[in-house]
């Protein structure tokens, strides 16, 4: 075992940024394996294979060459091989059992971007691509060699941001049904290039998805009105087609699929409900439907097999149900935030006992992500309200109650959250909730609600929360220009003590009365207008296509939205007293709060303001504030929109200041380190003692694809730091020390294992081939005190076999003092007994004195000196002092 010791002249630690979680698994339709035991999902440029029964990740398939993004996967007819195509036209073939790449070659797509990929048969594949002219090109290629079979140029199909394709049969020919978010459905015969047709949807509503029957000439489409329309007959001629309309969805439907047998049609959309229609030719079940309600997100894609249904949802999850419409498994990945949650900024707190991060999730929830297994473990329902779909077609995105802020104490025993909703008409909904951690085998949830405070800030949104280490009091700041102090007490609930919170006091800088204000992001989403139910109103998103701000396309790409540096801006708020961040000192004696550009310090116990810290560079208003920890506890670090400043609490002056544009500031409660992230995604780890950064990584991520808004420290080594960052409120990254082979324990890899049983036996017999230790290595180990017999015995034994610590201490102390180990007692006694039998007892005593060497003791008690010292103190110290004796006996001087 090698122990790493920090040295002053040690080389600086190299850090690397690693993506941990938050990849999108809902960009493309998943595929069931032919044996129905696995579900294959595209995750950016790789393919994940999940178990249908448990939802666990079985294996990951990657390409041998670097590719940008996979856009489609399909199994061949036999089911042995899996085919995939990338955005640039790279065709890849994997084996399903081992995941080996059989072949890779580039298709000749002429610098166009591939949008869809489908198999026509065992020899051909159908691909749609988009070029600079913004037109969809249709072509078929050979799977084995990648040669172009046919290119269909008879129809110019415009591209409006999304393409859906389904392959079917009609008149013994293969055809492709194409939808491009318009009212038209395009039909192309793949065996006869000159045969094509198009069908227009009823009432000119836009078609959002298309599916084909597996054996019959039938096509099903769903539109923005929520209808499912089935086209039957000769699809190559629009006058020889019969239509059947199934209408249950009130809002736009995004997904449709036929069952493998063809007797059922499965649809889903924005109501978060999956509908299974019976389209069989039996009168008693024709038109019957079955539902899976209360899904946690909008239905985006549907995949079917004879026994299972996979539903891809907008909260970045895949729900697997059986043919009887019973959910039995869910595959979850971090992400799935709504528009409002992305605008308000995500929450990120770290719980040390479990090693989990609590971050923003689907509306009204916090996701529990494990940093040890890199998996999403639990969805904590904060608002505890049902998700209600929109009641009007005028508002496809209803405003739901969102979690705006969250904080947790350093011990991880208490969690504080705030939730907010304001539609601009009704009175705002605002709640502050205190959650206690649940431990033990019987606890089904990690946190349990202890106290709920309605309108904790009078209906104003909470902007910052701070909690001390022992969770005895909490500080919340709101847009009402006040911060409130909450204290914990014990109450009796059903004859059991229970922790409850109450408001101790409210503090403000000036009048503390703010004008009623809210953010524009809430009012822009929900618009209340009294509509006549019988009045015909044309909604642009239902029929008009090609607009710059297409609402349908915006909802489809909700999970891809990039977050910028702009935060919520309040309306009609006095910037001189607008509340910013709040913080509590390490000992809990001080509270720091931003009021506009003034940083104030308050006494925790007296609840009065001690002083105000200001500087010209802190204008116009402050954003974050954090106290230092450990040896930097006397520093106060704050940020504004344009600078980072460090105040010394001893001199109440600025120690150093840096011009920078920060997006988040975080302090490590277990060390003196702090971290800051800028709007250019620069990550800087520093110590408040010095302006020289400990770690600085410039542009760790491209700011055009998203800005890092929140970050937090996790448990790390003394001289190293581990920082978790979240971009776009769903993508989790970790800045951690770069792993090197030097100083690490030896790990037996699979490449070093013997290839056979005989090889294993041979390796055990060739002990002489073990490489001896180098002289330099032995010298280094001796310097680190690793060669001692006591230490070696202590490190080599199993923990449950070690003797008590009291028996080992003497050996450790003797080794530290430099004393050599004495010989065994048995050998000493034997040498003493070997004397001449003719000698006398006096001679034996002389032999014993010469043979027994006195042991050197680390410390010898001198009782005589201690006795003399105590006796002298008794004699010199009077029994009663003179003033005390006078007071007792009534004597005066």
Topology:
Layout: E1 15-21, E2 31-32, E3 38-43, E4 46-51, E5 57-61, E6 70-75, E7 81-86, E8 90-95, E9 101-106, E10 113-119, E11 124-130, E12 135-142, E13 148-158, E14 164-170, E15 173-179, E16 184-189, E17 196-200, E18 207-212, E19 218-223, E20 227-233, E21 241-247, E22 253-258, E23 264-269, E24 274-278, E25 289-292, E26 299-304, E27 308-313, E28 317-322, E29 327-332, H1 339-344, E30 348-351, E31 356-360, E32 365-370, E33 375-381, E34 402-408, E35 414-421, E36 429-437, E37 447-454, E38 462-467, E39 473-478, E40 483-493, E41 496-507, H2 520-525, H3 540-543, H4 551-556, E42 579-584, E43 590-595, E44 598-603, E45 609-613, E46 622-627, E47 635-640, E48 643-648, E49 653-659, E50 662-667, E51 674-678, E52 683-686, E53 695-697, E54 708-713, E55 723-727, E56 731-737, H5 757-765, H6 775-783, H7 789-796, H8 805-817, H9 825-833, H10 841-851, H11 863-876, H12 882-889
Antiparallel strand pairs: 1-56, 2-3, 3-4, 4-5, 6-7, 7-8, 8-9, 10-11, 11-12, 12-13, 14-15, 15-16, 16-17, 18-19, 19-20, 20-21, 22-23, 23-24, 24-25, 26-27, 27-28, 28-29, 30-31, 31-32, 32-33, 34-35, 35-36, 36-37, 38-39, 39-40, 40-41, 42-43, 43-44, 44-45, 46-47, 47-48, 48-49, 50-51, 51-52, 52-53, ...
């Amino acid at each position: 075992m090698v122990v790493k010791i920090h040295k002053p002249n040690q080389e600086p630690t190299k850090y690397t940024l690693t993506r941990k979680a938050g990849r999108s698994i809902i960009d493309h339709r998943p595929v069931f394996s032919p044996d129905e035991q696995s579900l294959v999902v595209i995750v950016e440029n790789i393919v994940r294979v999940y178990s249908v029964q448990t939802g666990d990740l079985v294996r990951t398939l990657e390409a041998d060459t670097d590719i940008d993004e996979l856009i489609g996967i399909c199994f061949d007819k036999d089911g042995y091989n899996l085919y995939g195509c990338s955005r640039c036209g790279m065709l890849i073939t994997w084996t399903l059992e081992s995941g080996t790449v059989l072949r890779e070659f580039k298709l000749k797509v002429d610098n166009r971007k591939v949008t869809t990929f489908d198999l026509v048969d065992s020899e051909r594949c159908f691909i749609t691509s988009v070029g600079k002219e913004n037109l969809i090109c249709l072509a078929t290629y050979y799977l084995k060699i990648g040669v172009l079979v046919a290119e269909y140029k008879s129809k110019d199909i415009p591209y409006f941001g999304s393409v859906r394709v389904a392959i079917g049969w009609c008149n013994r020919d293969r055809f492709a049904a194409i939808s491009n978010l318009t009212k038209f459905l395009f039909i192309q015969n793949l065996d006869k290039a000159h045969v094509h047709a198009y069908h227009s949807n009823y009432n000119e509503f836009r078609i959002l998805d298309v599916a084909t029957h597996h054996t019959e000439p039938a096509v099903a489409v769903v539109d923005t009105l929520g209808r499912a329309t089935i086209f039957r007959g000769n699809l190559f001629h629009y006058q020889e087609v019969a239509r059947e309309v199934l209408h249950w969805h009130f809002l736009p439907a995004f997904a449709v699929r036929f069952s493998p047998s063809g007797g059922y049609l499965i649809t889903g959309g924005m109501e978060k409900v999956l509908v299974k229609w019976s389209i069989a030719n039996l009168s008693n079940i024709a038109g019957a439907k079955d539902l899976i309600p209360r899904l946690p997100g909008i239905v985006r894609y549907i995949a079917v097999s004879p026994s299972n249904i996979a539903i891809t949802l907008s909260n970045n999850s895949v729900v697997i149900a059986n043919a009887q419409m019973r959910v039995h498994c869910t595959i979850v990945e971090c992400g799935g935030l709504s528009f409002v949650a992305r605008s308000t900024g995500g929450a990120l707190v770290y719980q040390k006992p479990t090693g989990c991060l609590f971050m923003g999730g689907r509306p009204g929830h916090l996701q529990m992500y494990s940093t040890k297994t890199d998996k999403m473990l639990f969805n904590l329902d904060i608002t505890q309200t049902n998700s209600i779909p929109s009641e009007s077609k005028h508002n496809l995105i209803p405003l739901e109650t969102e979690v705006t802020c969250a904080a947790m104490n350093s011990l991880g025993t208490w969690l504080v959250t705030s939730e907010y909703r304001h539609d601009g008409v009704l009175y705002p909904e605002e709640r502050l909730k205190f959650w206690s951690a649940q431990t033990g085998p019987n606890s089904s949830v990690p946190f349990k609600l202890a106290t709920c405070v309605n309108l904790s800030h009078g209906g104003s949104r909470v902007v910052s929360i701070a909690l001390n280490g022992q969770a005895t009091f909490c500080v919340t700041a709101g847009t009402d220009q006040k911060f409130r102090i909450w204290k914990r007490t014990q109450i009796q609930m059903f004859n059991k003590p229970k922790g409850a919170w109450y408001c101790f006091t409210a503090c403000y800088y000036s009048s503390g009365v703010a004008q009623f204000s809210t953010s524009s992001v809430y009012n822009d989403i929900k618009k209340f207008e009294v509509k006549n139910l019988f009045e015909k109103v044309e909604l642009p998103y239902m029929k008009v296509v090609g607009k710059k701000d297409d609402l349908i396309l915006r909802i489809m790409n909700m999970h891809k939205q990039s977050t910028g540096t702009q935060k919520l801006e309040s309306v009609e708020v006095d910037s001189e007293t607008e509340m910013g961040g709040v913080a509590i000192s390490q000992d809990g004696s001080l509270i720091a709060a931003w009021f506009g550009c003034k940083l104030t310090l308050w006494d925790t116990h007296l609840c009065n303001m001690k002083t105000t810290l200001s500087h010209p560079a802190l204008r116009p208003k402050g954003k974050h504030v954090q106290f230092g920890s450990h040896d930097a506890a006397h520093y106060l670090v704050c940020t504004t929109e344009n600078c980072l400043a460090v105040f010394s609490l001893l001199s109440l002056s600025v120690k150093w200041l840096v011009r920078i544009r920060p997006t988040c500031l975080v302090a490590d409660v277990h060390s003196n380190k702090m971290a800051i992230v800028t709007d250019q995604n620069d990550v800087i780890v520093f110590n408040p003692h010095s302006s020289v950064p400990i770690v600085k990584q410039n542009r760790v991520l491209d700011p055009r694809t998203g800005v890092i808004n929140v970050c937090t420290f996790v448990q790390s080594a003394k001289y190293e730091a581990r920082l978790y960052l979240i971009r776009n409120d769903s993508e989790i990254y970790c800045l951690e020390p770069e792993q090197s082979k030097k100083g690490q324990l030896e790990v037996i890899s699979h490449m070093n294992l013997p290839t056979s049983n005989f090889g294993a036996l041979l390796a055990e017999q060739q002990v002489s081939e073990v490489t001896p230790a180098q002289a330099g290595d032995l010298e280094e180990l001796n310097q680190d005190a690793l060669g001692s017999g006591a230490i070696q015995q202590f490190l080599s034994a199993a923990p449950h076999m070690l003797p008590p610590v009291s028996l080992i201490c003497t050996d450790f102390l003797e080794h530290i003092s430099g004393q050599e180990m004495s010989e065994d007692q048995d050998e000493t006694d034997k040498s003493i007994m070997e004397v001449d039998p003719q000698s006398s007892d006096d001679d034996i005593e002389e032999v014993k004195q010469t043979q027994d060497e006195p042991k050197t003791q680390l410390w010898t008690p001198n009782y005589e000196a201690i006795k003399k010292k105590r006796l002298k103190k008794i004699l010199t110290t009077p029994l009663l002092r003179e003033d005390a004796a006078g007071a007792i006996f009534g004597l005066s001087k």
